[in-house]
Write a structure and sequence with these properties.
Blueprint (H helix, E strand, L loop, with lengths): L15 H15 L6 E5 L5 H6 L5 E6 L2 H10 L5 E5 L12 E7 L8 H11 E12 L1 H7 L14 H9 L4 E7 L32 E7 L18 H158 L1 H8 L10
Parallel strand pairs: 1-2, 1-4, 2-3, 4-5
Antiparallel strand pairs: 5-7, 6-7
């Protein structure tokens, strides 16, 4: 559902006076739409296009907001009323396709307002009329206290507005729209005509609330004053209602003020309690800060002591590393000596084994030769025994005496 943002008007969601300002412009245009093709450029929520569709042949509403177009399609359904999402600077319609084009409170929202005026002239039939309105920059600048409207791209004073329109349309009838107070004599029985009397001096554009212009390709006849009296125009009744609302609002505000004063006193008491608590907390925090400073100083001392001990430990470690390196070198030397000694022992063992083999062989030879010597000794003894026997033989001694026989050695 569309929501009133402070700029786009949504019926039943805005103040009646604000809604009446917008309805009055559509009532002003409705006098000219009978039997015509009408375009409402920047139609917003669609309530104005629906008003024009009551007597027009057909009405097309165009707005760049998809949300506004969806709201209009949902709430205003007539067979001769159509809505489309489109930019006022690029209207999706053929040339000369409308007899009346209205653009109420839209030109000030556009960066390229000249493009909008040119598009309005393009889609307007040769005998057609273009009705456009915009707020008076001078009046609204004062009413807002100089604060810019965030929804407006450019606002116009009277001379600038007339100059921009004259650059596009050769014929212009300018009106001013003011929300004024009046006195109405209305018959109880319906019917009859209405007579309007407008007193006062000529209209002063500088003081106007809004400017309304009727533009055309060809000359226009007549520009009568128009008075719109909305259904909620009983000023006294509306003022009474407004006063009651103000009184109710005042009571609400007084109740709120009383509650606010009570809450203020409670807040003051709470503030005092919090202030006392804060002072105690500050004293506690100061004490903690002092202790932290002392502990910080002690931490610095310990850090310096740790640095010294780390330096001493580093020196010891370096000494140990030197000793370890020396021991590692000694171990390497001992390992090399052990390897050499083992190699030498292996060689000696091999040589000893060879010697044992030689000794074994020599011992075998000695045994063999001993046995051979023993055999020779036995043979010698046997021969000596035989020789002794021979020497002792009587025949041998006789033959030696006779010089006969072999000469035997004595031993």
């Amino acid at each position: 559902m569309a929501e009133f943002t402070g700029e786009r008007v949504i019926p039943d969601e805005v103040d009646p006076d604000l809604l009446n300002e917008h309805l009055a412009r559509y009532a002003f245009a409705a006098r000219l739409v009978r039997g015509k093709r009408v375009l409402d450029a920047g139609c917003g929520a669609g309530y104005g296009a629906a008003e024009l569709a009551r007597t027009a042949v057909c009405v097309a509403g165009a707005d760049i907001s998809a949300e506004a177009v969806a709201y209009a399609r949902e709430h205003y359904r007539f067979p001769n009323l159509f809505f489309a999402q489109a930019s006022c600077g690029a209207l999706p319609y053929p040339d000369a396709s409308f007899d009346l084009v209205v653009g109420f409170e839209v030109i000030e929202h556009l960066t390229d307002w000249r493009g909008f005026l040119i598009e309005a002239r393009r889609v307007l039939a040769p005998n057609g009329q273009f009705i456009v309105s915009t707020p008076n920059r001078l009046y609204y600048g004062e009413s807002r206290g100089g604060v810019a409207n965030p929804f407006h791209q450019h606002e116009f004073d009277y001379e600038e507005f007339r100059g921009e329109l004259s650059a596009v349309f050769p014929y212009i009838s300018l009106f001013i729209e003011n929300h004024t107070e009046g006195v109405v004599f209305q018959p109880v029985e319906p019917g009859g005509t209405a007579e309007v009397r407008v007193d006062g001096v000529a209209a002063e554009p500088r003081d106007a609330h809004f400017f309304v212009a009727v533009c055309a390709h060809r000359p226009q006849t007549g520009n009568p004053a128009y008075v719109y009296i909305p259904g909620t125009a009983n000023v006294l009744r509306e003022r009474e209602r407004h006063i009651r609302l103000l009184e109710e609002e005042l009571r609400t505000k007084n109740d709120w003020l009383a509650r606010s004063r009570q809450e203020h006193q409670e807040l003051v008491d709470l503030f005092r309690l919090q202030k006392d608590e804060l002072e105690r907390s500050n004293r506690w925090a100061e004490e903690q800060n002092r202790k932290l400073e002392e502990k910080g100083a002690r931490i610095l001392e310990l850090q310096e002591e740790v640095v010294r001990e780390q330096a001493a430990a580093q020196a010891v470690v370096e000494g140990y590393e030197v000793k370890i390196a020396a021991l590692e070198q000694e171990c390497r030397n001992a390992a090399e000596w052990a390897q050499r000694t083992r190699h030498e022992l292996d060689e000696k063992l091999q040589e000893l084994a060879r010697c044992v083999e030689h000794l074994t062989a020599a011992e075998q030879t000695v045994v063999e030769r001993t046995e051979w010597a023993q055999r020779l000794e036995a043979e010698l003894q046997h021969l000596q025994a035989q020789l002794a026997m021979v020497r002792a033989s009587r025949w041998v001694r006789t033959g030696r005496k006779l010089g006969l026989g072999p000469t035997l050695p004595e031993s």
